[in-house]
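Exercise: predict the fold of this chain.
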Amino acid sequence: QVQLVESGGGLVHAGGSLRLSCTTSGRTFSSYAMGWFRQAPGKEREFVAATWGSGTTYYADSVKGRFTISRDNIKITVYLQMNSLKSEDTAVYYCAAGDQASHYYRASQYTSWGQGTQVTVSS
């Protein structure tokens, strides 16, 4: 397991942007799949985006075209750039690390999780 620390959450108006960061402690960061998930009050945790060490990226349909996931293997950090934010994007966002596998959208695929960072989008 690796330690993950998220930052960058906050309050933003609809249509605005935020960038989340997730710094890890892993020495083999480039071999991990890194994912972002979110959980709104009363809802299940849902997949947002994932990236593999090769740079391959995956997105949930609800954020495709608005969010961009990227990683810096030197800084061992993964980012989530969120543009055109909507009120329905309001949630606690979690960073996760796991093996690179086909089920990248499943929370169970990831073995390490950050503490979460709150994103609130006001309409």
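Check your answer against the key: The chain is about 0% helix and 50% strand.
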